[in-house]
Amino acid sequence: MPLADHLRELRNRLAKGVLAIIVVTVVAAFFYKDIINFITKPLLESVGCAQSFGQLAKTKEDVHCAHITVTGLLTPFTLALKASLTAGVVVAAPIWLYQLWAFVAPGLHRHEKKYAYAFVTLGFPLFLVGGYLAYNVLPATAKVMINFTPQGAENLLELDKLLDLVTRMVVVFGLSFEMPLLLVMLNLTGILSGRRMLGWWRGMVVGIAAFSAVATPGADPMSMLALAAPIWALFFIAVTFSLLNDRRRARREDRALGDDEASELDLTPEDIDEVEAVTAGAAPELPATDRVNGYDDVT
Fold first, then answer.
1. Would you give the end-to-end CA distance of the chain in angstroms?
2. Percent of the chain scoring above 70 in pLDDT
3. Which residues contact 163 (CB under 8 A, 6 or more apart)?
4. 20 to 30 A Cα–Cα from 146, which one of 153, 177, 283, 296?
5. Could you give the 3-state DSSP secondary structure of residue 149?
6. How far apart are CA 99 and CA 85, in angstroms?
7. What are the residue ranges spanned by the domains of the chain?
């Protein structure tokens, strides 16, 4: 396709994806309070507050209770827009991901499409697992952080910052779970070997631990281990798969014929009479071909 046609197709694909996000965002705007309640409910329950958004009350069992506040005149509108847009991007993900795939797929070879299908098939569940882990780690982290509050002090959490924190944590946990899959894809394409990955294991263990300590908002080691332990396990699974794949690739290359190796010749003798019978007869007639300007296809 010419460049102008590529740009035109890209524009149409982007327009369809954006339109789907806008439609879902408009629908989600009518339920933005339920969305915020869904996001903040585990955190509020962990710090001893009521379960429903707008009905925050301190319980008798807990010493500290964090109250959600909204500051600023335009903050409620910004919250509604942010919650609705987040729901629009998430719910409309199958549509805009398909549009992106439909634009890229025609330029891929068959084996590249196979790898892309595997990446999407495994990548999306891994992202969901990482997001779900973040959604469950945040309440325990919030409870630990709230316990540092001095006696007599009240905890006031700004709702917009709380929403940003939950969204960022879900995205960070989800993307971190994609790292082992990326390593496997690099190995399948021949860019990275399993032996080299295995040589990185000490640095990867330390790096993943440092990343988990920075990514998790709490200072407790449990939150860090909750993120680091699954990534460690996924990394070593990726290394094991890469080593097995390299061994399979090496066996296949050993069976293949080298560039400087001569192939075996078939030296079985044939009956000469059959050949003479064919050469002695009349030459077979060639099929009629269409001629253009006096020349046939062969000419």
1. 31
2. 75
3. 36, 39, 40, 79, 82, 83
4. 177
5. coil
6. 19
7. 9-167, 178-254
Closest by CA to 37, choosing from 22, 23, 55, 25, is: 55
Helix (H, G, I), strand (E, B) or coil at 257: coil
DSSP class of residue 291 equals -
**142 in Cβ contact with 45 (< 8 Å):** no
Element (H, E) at 124: helix 110-146
pLDDT in tens, the chain (299 residues): 677 887 888 888 899 989 999 999 999 989 888 888 887 777 777 766 544 444 444 444 444 566 777 887 888 888 888 888 888 888 888 888 788 777 777 776 776 677 777 777 787 788 888 888 888 877 777 777 777 777 777 777 787 888 888 888 888 888 888 888 888 888 877 788 888 888 888 888 898 888 887 777 655 677 778 778 888 888 899 899 889 988 888 888 777 655 555 556 666 666 665 555 545 555 555 555 555 555 555 55
Query: pTM for the complete prediction?
Result: 0.64
The pair of structure tokens assigned to 202 is: 């000490």
Distance CA 249, CA 263 (A): 21
Q: Are 147 and 64 in contact (CB under 8 A)?
A: yes
Q: Beta strands of 16-85 (E only): which ranges? A: 66-69
Spatial separation of the C-alpha atoms in residues 132 and 126, rounded to whole Å: 10
Quote the tokens at residue 220. 């407790």
> CB atoms < 10 A from the CB of 262, how many?
7
Q: Is the CB of residue 229 less than 8 Å from the CB of residue 173?
A: no
DSSP E strands: which ranges in 3-102? 66-69
Q: Is 96 helix (H, G, I), strand (E, B) or coil?
A: helix
